[in-house]
């Protein structure tokens, strides 16, 4: 009997504990529900630009009565040998240094891939707008001279791939491709000077397509052509811009270069297409709106 009574008291005590826990859980649920019903925190948005729907804007035309502006942006960069920073072709989960395999793969771009891309641009009669790391000027001055000979344009890609809009505007830079939220250029708010966003079209960037998603050349080509065809059709209602971001160590590889050639050939078959540099597009935009 003593044992039974003890067990009974223990059972009752546990029951009260469980009841208390259930009650606390119930309070917690009611508290969470009350919080869910309270006013949500205001949405924080960027204050760099005005809201504008493309359907509300006044149509205009690019030079030559064209409706779609296309610009090519090869990224010309330099990396530290004793750093694991940078896109890679093979995993380096421990950040082992020196990461010779990935470092050498990236260096292929400036040694070979860029010039293979340059030959394609030369044959097609288009000029590039180079997204340039400033330190390339110090490390590869001959490459800078070769790009200048082709009248390529240079846009800032930072010393270490970083930038600030206000500083860039103060220094006279007038456009950037970071704000991928439109098919047209638009003004950005800066403390002084002028700054415009230009569509960079990161959806067809060769890094995410080839490296991160593992696309084949045919899949990359299909993506670029689909992007172009849709923008070309849209441009009959409102002018559009298509950027083509490239990386020489990726698109400049022998197995991929023909897909860039075929993409450009497809674009050149269409009417109303203007191949331009970034600054030409921004200048034309400012004179048209």
Structure description:
The protein has 289 residues and is an alpha/beta fold. The protein has 2 domains: 1-44; 54-288, TIM Barrel, CATH 3.20.20.370. Helix content is 46%, strand content 11%. It is built from 10 helices and 8 strands. Strands 1, 2, 3, 7 and 8 form a 5-stranded parallel sheet that branches. The protein has a 3-stranded mixed sheet with strand order 4-6-5, covered by helices on one side. Helix 2 (100-124) packs parallel to helix 9 and helix 7 (217-234) packs parallel to helix 9 (257-268). The radius of gyration is 28 Å and the shape is globular. It starts with a helix and ends with a helix. Mean pLDDT is 89; it is low at 1-6 and 11-27.
In DSSP terms (H or I, runs of 4 or more residues), the helix count works out at 10
DSSP summary, beta strand count: 8
The third-level CATH topology of the largest domain is: TIM Barrel
Strand fraction equals: 5-15%
Which CATH architecture of the largest domain would you pick? Answer: Alpha-Beta Barrel
From the helix content, strand content and strand pairing, which structural class follows? alpha/beta
Radius of gyration: 28 Å
Sheet of most strands: 5 strands, parallel
The residue fraction in helices comes out at 40-55%
Integer tally of domains: 2
Shape verdict = globular
Q: What is the first-to-last residue Cα distance?
A: 95 Å
């Amino acid at each position: 009997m003593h044992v039974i009574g003890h067990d009974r008291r223990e059972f009752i005590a546990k029951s009260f504990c469980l009841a208390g826990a259930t009650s606390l859980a119930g309070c917690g649920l009611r508290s969470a529900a009350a919080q869910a019903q309270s006013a949500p925190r205001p949405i924080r948005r960027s204050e760099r630009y005005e809201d504008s729907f493309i359907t509300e804007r006044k149509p205009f035309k690019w030079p030559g009565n064209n409706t779609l502006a296309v610009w090519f942006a090869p990224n010309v960069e330099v990396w530290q040998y004793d750093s694991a920073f940078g896109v890679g072709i093979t995993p380096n989960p421990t950040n082992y240094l020196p990461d010779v395999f990935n470092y050498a793969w990236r260096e292929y771009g400036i040694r070979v891939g860029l010039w293979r891309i340059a030959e394609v641009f030369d044959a097609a009669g288009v000029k590039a707008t180079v997204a340039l790391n400033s330190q390339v000027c110090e490390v590869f001055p001959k490459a800078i001279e070769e790009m200048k000979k082709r009248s390529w344009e240079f846009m800032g890609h930072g010393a270490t791939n970083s930038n600030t809009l206000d500083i860039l505007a103060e220094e006279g830079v007038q456009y950037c491709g970071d704000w991928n939220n439109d098919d047209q250029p638009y003004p950005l708010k800066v403390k002084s000077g002028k700054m415009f966003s230009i569509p960079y079209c990161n959806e067809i960037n060769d890094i995410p397509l080839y490296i991160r998603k593992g696309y084949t050349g045919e899949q990359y080509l299909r993506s670029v052509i689909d992007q172009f065809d849709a923008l070309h059709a849209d441009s009959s209602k409102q002018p559009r811009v298509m950027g083509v971001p490239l990386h020489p160590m990726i698109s400049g590889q022998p197995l991929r270069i023909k897909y860039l050639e075929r993409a450009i050939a497809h674009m050149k078959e269409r009417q109303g297409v203007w191949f331009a540099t970034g600054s030409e597009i921004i200048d034309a935009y400012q004179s048209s709106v």
